[in-house]
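This part of the workshop introduces the protein records we will be handling. A learned vocabulary of local backbone shapes supplies the integers on the structure line. Getting from the letters to the tokens is the skill we practise here. As an example, a complete record with its sequence and its structure tokens follows.
=====
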Amino acid sequence: MLRSARLPAGATERGSAVVDFVLVGALVSLVFMAVIQLALVLHVRNTLIDAAATGARYGTLADRSPEDGIRRTSELIHASLGAEYAGDITSAEQTAGDARLLEITVRAPLPVIGLIGPDGGIEVAGHAAWR
């Protein structure tokens, strides 16, 4: 007669803790990197909005023109994010009620992996009223 060999308790689970650790560690790392990337996207967006609004305010000063606002916006973006984010900046005059507004629009790459991403993924605008 053949007797079945009995394995000690827990012998079939041997080595599974290593696999669990690797799988959970990889999942936690992936979630952590996604949160960091989201924070980077929000940082880029907020920086672009601030630069556009500052450029619009600068362009509406008494001795300045919309081109000066575009140039100021470009300088701010170039100093904070880099030249590739300051490539597509436009200005337009708008009206809201009886107020004249200067709108500075910035189109920049959407950072997908680090700061690398497709062009035109983010479009933000800043407004200022002429006095």
User: Anything to note?
Assistant: DSSP finds two helices and three strands in the chain. The longest strand covers residues 99-108.
